[in-house]
Design brief:
The structure holds 2 protein chains of 2 kinds.
Chain A (H helix, E strand, L loop, with lengths): L3 E5 H11 L2 E6 L7 H9 L6 E4 L3 H12 L4 E6 L1 H16 L4 E7 L15 H6 L9 E3 L4 H18 L2 E7 H5 L1 E5 L35 E2 L8 H19 L3 E4 L6 E4 L2 H16 L4 E6 L1 E3 L3 H7 L5 E6 L5 H8 L6 E5 L8 H14 L14
Parallel strand pairs in A: 2-3, 2-4, 4-5, 5-7, 6-7, 11-12, 11-14, 14-15
Antiparallel strand pairs in A: 1-8, 6-13, 10-12
Helix pairs in contact in A: 1-2, 1-6, 3-4, 9-12, 10-11
Chain B lengths: L23 H14 L6 E5 L14 E4 L5 H11 L4 E7 H7 L1 H9 L5 E6 L29 H4 L5 H5 L5 E8 L3 H19 L4 E7 L3 H4 L3 H15 L3 E4 L1
Parallel strand pairs in B: 1-2, 1-3, 3-4, 4-6, 5-6
Antiparallel strand pairs in B: 5-7
Classes of the chains: A alpha/beta, B alpha/beta.
Chain lengths: 375, 243
């Protein structure tokens, strides 16, 4: 048995990156992910890698762009406001089909917000926060052990599909400590694709000087008639393949649940306890936990909607993933939502109370209180 | 028959998209000649900017990538740190380097990254239609300074070479011009030197090339060249600022 170690989530993620073969890290300080650059600054020299504290988030992601185009596994990390700054670079990575891993340990927003945990960057992460017709794989770990597994997987997927992959955590996951085996286990349950065993994927596209071959160009400017449309459609084919092969999720009591809680990351840990409590009370509750937020487990949820009567989405946001749940089940069953925002963390009692209240009331729970100033 | 003049090996056989009289073609060619002479074509990785020179890779016959606007020095840093054995150079215009990319150039220079930057200063944004650049000289008319650059409204021309020369991480900075054959030869010497500096591991080196943009100076090619020689050099004196 592998020895377990006690580390915080950010450090676990950094070490998992090293294990995955990451040999370039550039970042910029922002709470609550500062342990990642600190760990990398110490660890990278030991493994012959490169650590750079960049002058900005923008520079950090562009340094990753430069490192990645030489073929090295490269990563940057930040938290919400910093991730907004990285969006330009992420769009260019997508446009140039360059692999890279971007970590977002989400905090409260909008604006400078606060440094408390949040899940309010779901839209930005899953819709493509940068410009253009692109997607990024988004993986959401819910435990430190899963941070190990999904970090390794992120680098594999980034290389396999030549695209940016985001690990979407939050301040709690980054800061909390849990015993972990620093040894990637089998990649999470119900993976619809094949695991990638060999991280050393042949890269026949890198720039390393044109010795003994034709010169190469890595670019995203496509000015020719119809050129960009053709390229974007090729990207869509790649995304369709990913939607087919790389969907990951976990289901708890999928067979006999009347109501399904849907949540990811930190919130799913709370919902798991809620479900176990309800089960002890003899109530048929279950939980659906998307692990890949993009591709979203649409089909699995749709199938579940055949058996489940109600869905109850819990997020640390004012309701973002809830849109994907409704889209997935095509609004065939009622979807209720409960969220806390701006650093609020839902408790088990709160969730159970809201569950009861909303479902007893049988529907809509939002009342409009804001009044716009008259012009 | 003895061939006395030919295309550098590092240059593709392509016809130019640049406007008549534009300086980019001259600078592109100098870079290719230098790369041939130093025999580094198979080691070079170039970075094209956003701006008129974005498609430099249509002329350069070696590995090239393309950075987001202003991010050339950050991309160059990423490449060079991972691949110190390669020769990494960035090609940037005045909007790219001296406006949107000021943070990137200053910090790459200050870290003393062992990279080479060719900075083409033609005092105007070309690709987007002749707007004021940070290096536009006072009273110069552009599409966003229709009455001439006013120091109170638009600030002063930014002197990049002088600014960078104050940084201890910088190994070499020189400003050259390409308005006549004599200056073109000097420019080539400077460009060769900044590539050599990288080969010798001396750290961050930059050549600022004063160039002409006849289209957006609103001049003929001949008049644009004269403007550089007589007006632009007054604002941007030539010379070595740090070595």
């Amino acid at each position: 048995m592998t020895k377990k170690v006690l580390m915080c989530g950010n450090e676990v993620l950094a070490e998992a990156g090293i294990m995955a073969g990451c040999r370039f890290y550039a970042g910029y300080p922002i709470t609550p992910q500062n342990e990642i650059p600190a760990y990398m600054s110490r660890r990278m020299p030991e493994v012959g890698g490169v650590f750079i504290q960049a002058e900005s988030e923008i520079s950090a992601v562009n340094m990753v762009f430069g490192a990645s185009l030489t073929g090295v596994r490269a990563m940057t990390s930040s938290s919400s406001p910093g991730i907004s700054l990285k969006q330009e670079g992420i769009s260019y990575l997508a446009g140039c089909q360059l692999p890279a891993v971007i970590v977002n340990m989400m905090r409260g927003g909008p604006g400078l917000g606060n440094i408390a945990p949040s899940q309010s960057d779901y839209f930005q992460a899953t819709r493509g926060g940068g410009h253009g017709d692109y997607r990024q794989v988004v993986l959401a770990p819910a435990s430190l052990q899963e941070i190990v597994d999904l970090t390794v997987l992120s680098f594999d997927l980034a290389d396999k599909y030549r695209m940016p992959v985001m690990i979407l955590g939050d301040g709690i996951l980054g800061q909390m400590m849990e015993p972990v085996e620093l040894n990637p286990k089998s990649i999470p349950q119900r993976c619809s694709g094949q695991e990638i065993q060999n991280p050393k994927i042949e890269k026949d596209w890198v720039l390393d000087g044109c010795k003994g071959r034709e010169p190469r160009v890595i670019k995203s400017l496509l000015l020719g008639e119809g050129e960009l449309e053709r390229f974007n459609l090729r990207l869509q084919e790649k995304y369709a393949l990913i939607k087919d092969k790389e969907v990951r999720y976990e289901v708890l009591y999928g067979d006999d649940s009347d109501i399904m809680l849907v949540s990811y990351g930190t919130t799913s840990r709370i919902c798991r306890s809620v479900v176990e409590r309800l089960r002890r009370q003899g109530k048929n509750a279950g939980m659906f936990r998307p692990i890949s937020l993009w591709p979203f487990p649409e089909r699995a949820l749709k199938e579940l909607a055949e058996r489940v009567n109600k869905f109850f989405v819990v997020e640390m946001s004012c309701g973002q993933m809830v849109d994907d749940v409704k889209l997935s089940i095509e609004c065939r069953k009622p979807v209720y939502f409960y969220g806390r925002t701006g650093g609020g963390i839902p408790t088990e009692e709160e969730i159970i109370g809201e569950l009861q209240k909303r479902i007893d009331a049988g529907g809509c729970f939002t009342s409009i209180k804001y009044q716009a100033p008259s012009i | 028959m003895n061939k006395v003049f030919s295309k550098p090996k590092s240059m593709k056989n392509a016809s130019t998209h640049y406007c008549p009289g534009c300086g980019h073609g001259v600078v592109h060619r100098i870079i290719c000649e230098v790369i041939d002479e130093l025999d580094i074509r198979e080691k070079v990785i170039g970075i094209a900017p956003v701006g008129c020179a974005v498609i430099a890779y249509d002329y350069w016959d070696f590995d090239v990538t393309e950075a987001a606007h202003g991010r050339v020095p950050a991309v160059a840093t990423g490449i060079k740190r991972v691949k110190p054995e390669n020769i990494v150079f960035g090609y940037q215009g005045d909007g790219d380097l001296a406006a949107i990319g000021t943070a990137e150039i200053i910090h790459a220079a200050n870290r003393g990254e062992n990279i080479t930057i060719i900075f083409v200063n033609n005092a105007v944004y070309g690709m987007t239609g002749g707007q004021m650049a940070p290096t536009t000289v006072l009273k110069q008319k552009t599409s966003t300074t229709p009455f001439g650059r006013d120091k109170k409204r638009d600030g002063f021309p930014l002197k990049v070479s002088e600014l960078l020369a104050t940084l201890p991480g910088v190994s070499y900075v020189e400003r050259v011009a390409i308005h006549d054959p004599q200056h073109i030869l000097k420019a080539k010497k400077a460009i060769k030197r900044v590539f050599q500096n990288q080969i010798n591991g001396l750290g961050f080196s930059l050549v600022e090339v004063l160039s002409q943009c006849p289209t957006y100076l609103g001049h003929s090619a001949k008049e644009a060249v004269r403007w550089v020689a007589e007006e632009m050099i007054k604002e941007y004196p030539l010379g070595v600022f740090r070595q």
